[in-house]
């Protein structure tokens, strides 16, 4: 890390379902001692918590239970709470945030308010074909959400190595649903890519490599900017 920048740097991970961006986000957070801020985790934390009496949390839960996506302003609010709590201590790896132009604009505002460094957006590219082949082949444990891939021994045994339960295929990992999620992502990413490439902050990475290969490509793309 360059010493000419006293403020920690920040990264945004973009990628369709099956791109492995969550894994890369985790690896990058570890490598650079950044905080892995996943909007999905923030929502799940609320879903799994006891929230009676808190109207904000109740509303998040109600939408989740009805399958309604959380509105942009709610996601921005959740993220801002975390930034407000941590920005003096660490930089961030944003995972599944921003997912829309209004969310990206919300983040730009926070960058100014909290005086954090402008993040680089790392866009991990995989084709629909590759996403399909990766996602429709994974299994998971419905008790601890652990995910298994065809090369794992537990996958072949069809038994979770953590709790011994039978593994299942996720209902949103069927080819039809994966295709829909991928296409929804593609239409959003066009706007977001445009937004970040205009300011020279978009780094496009070939995601059709091994996990370590993608990680190396990300590091190589980042190094000149650190
Ligand atoms: Zn399990």
Summarize the topology:
Elements: E1 11-14, H1 21-32, E2 35-38, H2 39-47, H3 55-65, H4 72-86, E3 92-95, H5 101-113, E4 120-125, H6 128-135, E5 139-140, E6 147-148, H7 153-157, H8 175-198, E7 202-206, H9 211-222
Parallel strand pairs: 1-3, 1-4, 2-3, 4-7
Antiparallel strand pairs: 5-6
Helix pairs in contact: 4-5, 6-8
The structure holds zinc ion.
Based on the structure given, which CATH architecture of one domain is correct? 3-Layer(aba) Sandwich
Mind describing the biggest β-sheet? 5 strands, parallel
CATH class of one domain: Alpha Beta
Principal-axes shape call:
globular
- Let me know the number of strands: 7
Low-confidence stretches: none
Mean pLDDT: 91
> How far apart are the first and last residues' alpha carbons, in Å?
6 Å
Percentage of residues in DSSP E strands: 5-15%
What hetero molecules are bound to the protein chains? zinc ion
The H-level CATH homologous superfamily of one domain, spelled out, is P-loop containing nucleotide triphosphate hydrolases
InterPro entries: Adenyl_kin_sub, Adenylat/UMP-CMP_kin, P-loop_NTPase
Subcellular location: Cytoplasm
GO molecular function: AMP kinase activity; ATP binding
Organism: Candidatus Kerfeldbacteria bacterium CG08_land_8_20_14_0_20_43_14
